[in-house]
Amino acid sequence: MDKVTFIATGDAFMTRRLPEKHYDGFKELSELISSHDVKFTNLEITVHDREGYPSACSGGTWAMTSPAVMDDLKSYGFNIYNAANNHTLDYSHNGLEATMRHLYERGMNYVGIGKCLADACAPKYIECPRGRAAI
């Protein structure tokens, strides 16, 4: 029986667009990630066009990126993003809601955040050729 394969990376802290022609090694890295069924990374930033305001305390720095950067992050081949981390509320609730909206608009499956605790805790399922995975 074939097994569902899983790859995970650490923090995705992208604040700038990738070069138009990417960079040496991009193709190999994206092929490695894409060769697995479940492709997981930690979204270590908020995603918005200054739609929130900085919280009094940050997760170490106020982490924000333009929504267009998500198109580049998506090009690596990830299919699930964790968004619950120390930067989730760097730009308060408006930043959180904007992050969810921009991820949703791009079809980026995410876990760990939501409009309420039940949504944030809900599992997400990834349908794979060899089975189903839940995060």
Radius of gyration computed on alpha carbons = 15 Å
- Based on secondary structure, the structural category is alpha/beta
Q: What does the overall shape look like? A: globular
Q: DSSP strand (E) fraction?
A: 15-25%
Which bin fits the share of residues in helices?
Answer: 25-40%
Number of helices: 4
Q: How is the biggest beta sheet arranged?
A: 4 strands, parallel
Mean pLDDT: 93
Distance between the amino and carboxyl termini: 22 Å
- Enumerate the spans where pLDDT stays under 50 for 5 or more consecutive residues: none
Report on the structure:
The protein has 135 residues and is an alpha/beta fold. The protein has helices at residues 26-34, 67-74, 92-105, 117-121; strands at residues 6-12, 38-43, 46-47, 64-65, 80-82, 110-111, 125-128, 131-134. 27% of the residues lie in helices and 22% in strands. The strands form 3 sheets. Strands 1-2-5-6 form a 4-stranded parallel sheet, with no helix packed on it. Strands 3-4 form a two-stranded parallel sheet. The protein has a two-stranded antiparallel sheet with strand order 7-8.
